Amino acid sequence: MKIVSNKSNLQVLHEDNHLIVVNKRVGDIVQGDKTGDKPLSDVVKEFIKDKYNKPGEVFLGVVHRLDRPTTGIVVFARTSKALTRMNELFSNRETQKTYWCIVKNKPSNTEDKLVHFLKRNEKNNTSKAHLKEVPDSKLASLDYKIIKELNNYFALEINLHTGRHHQIRAQLSAIGSPIKGDLKYGFDRSNPDGGIHLHARKLVFVHPVTKENIEIIAPTPDDVIWNAV
Q: What is the largest CA-CA distance in the chain?
């Protein structure tokens, strides 16, 4: 059964006067879109409003997004100053993002750097990874390593060097190791909850206001395969 976030079950990983960081569930949508489903940003606003008895509108800035079927760390800004500075950190690649994922087909190398040129297809909302540059493509690179071999699957740790649309999903699919549950990128069957086994596991950055080093780790979803990792 899929459980989306609400103000009562929100998984808060870090909170201060300027930021709130939550652990996104499968199905949570970070920001409103054409589906009309309630976005995580609204849930977090309700959480803050309730917790602090805030009258009127709560300010909350969306710093970055995660795909709807993925899980893990999402950062929101509670002040406009924090939003501006966090946006700069993300756009200047001054954050360190680590993802975990589960694949069925073992990559040919235990660890490797993948470099592709990704071309986005707006019509079906996918990105295709090419080995050589093609028109309208963008350079994408990441490092991966196998961190655990399970019975039928392999757990990988991913460090991103660029932040492209569906980057991890497209690049792993291109080497023949699509993520578990990811029908869009070549996995053979969906997960029961409609999600995929891709999790934003760790984020390291310098706090935009206090300047302290922040390291956030998000627990993986509670399912048999993640629990084995």
A: 56
For the cut 90, the answer to whether the pLDDT of residue 2 exceeds it is no
For residue 126, list its beta bridge partners: 121
Q: Dihedral sign for Cα 229, 22, 182, 161, please.
A: negative
> What is the structure's pLDDT at 132?
97
Q: How far apart are CA 133 and CA 114, in angstroms?
A: 14
Distance CA 128, CA 126 (A): 7
- Compute the half-sphere exposure of residue 147: CA atoms within 13 Å on the CB side of its CA: 15
Torsion angle, CA of 192/224/203/25, rounded to 10 degrees? 30
Q: Angle at the Cα of 65 (from 110 to 84), degrees rounded to 5?
A: 115
Contact 21, 74 (CB under 8 A): yes
